[in-house]
Specification:
Length: 196
């Protein structure tokens, strides 16, 4: 399918970890973690004519296919003024390392600002994260970056993408929906989830 400017994302959401709670015969409760947080979203097309249908079909009816999307225009790049290469340092201001489970990292390089709600990703894995606080980058000291969900991989030494952030995703089912209006314009939507 041709991915055109007629596509937009809606209902972008973070799905929490898949935890299972169980109780032993002695009455003790324990929790097992069976997965990481992931983003889910719906791709919706803008209306187009039936004549354009062949070049604007949904991506796939096979939920084993994996795609890499650039996030939509309002959220694909920082709302701040950041420029330059941002690299993760080996530790944060409180001495923590940027390890699995961290929600704070130290970074160096780059100038300008990153804004709360910006999406970011790191060069050593495909997971996408969201900033939970503004960041002022001065390019010369270690700046603190706060985000959610927690890291799924150590990112020490990785670079950070904050513009044209890509997300790796797959359809959640083989279903997609069509809407046809009274003058013959068609729109469709399909649900996806992030692949990590």
């Amino acid at each position: 399918m041709a991915i055109t400017s007629k596509l937009k994302f809606v209902e972008f959401a973070n799905e929490k970890k898949q935890n299972v709670t169980n109780t032993t015969l002695t009455g003790d409760t324990f929790v097992s973690d069976y997965g990481n947080n992931y983003w889910s979203f719906t791709i919706t097309s803008a209306p187009y004519s039936r004549a354009e249908l062949g070049t604007n079909m949904p991506l796939s009816s096979d939920n084993s296919d994996v795609y890499s999307f650039i996030l939509p225009s309002p959220i694909k790049s920082t709302q701040g003024s950041a420029t330059g290469t941002i690299t993760v340092s080996a530790s944060t201001a409180d001495g923590n390392t940027p390890a699995i489970g961290s929600t704070q990292i130290g970074v160096s390089g780059g100038t300008g600002t990153l804004k709360n709600g910006d999406f970011i990703k790191f060069s050593n894995h495909t997971k996408v994260y969201m900033l939970t606080a503004d960041v002022n980058l001065d390019g010369s000291t270690i700046d603190q970056v706060y985000f959610y969900p927690p890291l799924i991989k150590n990112v020490s030494g990785a670079t950070m993408t904050y513009n044209n952030v890509p997300i790796k995703a797959t359809p959640t089912s083989e279903r997609f929906e069509y809407n046809v209006d009274t003058v013959g314009y068609v729109s469709w939507s399909q649900n996806f989830r992030e692949i990590i």
